[in-house]
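Quick note —
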Amino acid sequence: GLQTGDRQVPKWVQDRLITGYFFRVLQPGHCHSGDELNLTHRSEPELTVAQAGRIYFSDSSSVSELEFLRDSPGLCERWKSQVSKRLAMGIGESQDKRLYGPDAAQTYSI
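Predicted structure written out below.
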């Protein structure tokens, strides 16, 4: 929102699970627009970036989904910590504060 000047962009991006892409560099070099990038190995075939985003950002993720996400070895420590807090407190963290600013923070029961 702040970078684009449009406060609706973060919600639009989150709703579409557009979380970016993640590549490990195997050989340093240059790539250009139109170059082909190939997936050669998936370290966690059970969890995709899209699945992680859906579970993390969804207001309707189940406890078992949150536990699965928390226990995924490739998940960053910040997300693991946030998911652990959500599970320990029995509440979900609303994404409204991140999406719409500091005055919109809310919680909900899981």
